């Protein structure tokens, strides 16, 4: 059997079959969850959270493992607990186009929708809190606060998509890189000795993938990163690590767009 087909069949059943990397978790895990405040669960009381946790399972995704494939039946949804997931689609000529990234506290899936529109894959090792779609829809129907929070996130996603269209249509290559670095830092944070000091973090994507996201070539991405390094705005310690030395300079570049 083709490996991709086998993986697709497995992933479409994981919510139902409880594989080895999916397990129940105690109530305390939900109560002490690091992303609770920023996730949909932040709208729930402890009693409501206790009810929801009985519907969920914690699942570990390995690098390259898909949570969902575009076009398959939507059977589950999830909160991202750790790691980063990419949302992608295939172009007409078979190339992958990354259309978004999901970070810890982000919601994965579309309740009340029949199938997934995009493929969702782990960029590295990740952990998610999964729910059967039918269970989650039933819980959501009785929780107005959570429904409103999901609606707000949907609007935020729409705004982000419109912002991305503006970025691709109006910003220069240097502005796109500056914007991407700031957005990545704001979502995943990094190591910093002070609130306004240099901050170091690992980019979630390769330079080739960044080029795809920003509508640039890999050569342009590398050239712009080098220009920022020479200008003293960032440092490149090695690998995918980036140190932002002058956040204000990056912000001025994006504000000029």
From TrEMBL:
HTH crp-type domain boundaries: 171-248
Keywords from the UniProt entry: DNA-binding, Transcription, Transcription regulation
PROSITE patterns assigned to the protein according to its UniProt record, in alphabetical order: HTH_CRP_1, HTH_CRP_2
Record flagged with keyword Secreted: no
Keyword Oxidoreductase: no
Gene Ontology cellular component annotations, sorted alphabetically: cytosol
GO MF term (any one): DNA binding
PANTHER family: CRP FAMILY TRANSCRIPTIONAL REGULATORY PROTEIN, FUMARATE AND NITRATE REDUCTION REGULATORY PROTEIN
Protein's recorded name: HTH crp-type domain-containing protein
Organism (species): Sphingomonas sanxanigenens DSM 19645 = NX02
Organism lineage string: Bacteria, Pseudomonadati, Pseudomonadota, Alphaproteobacteria, Sphingomonadales
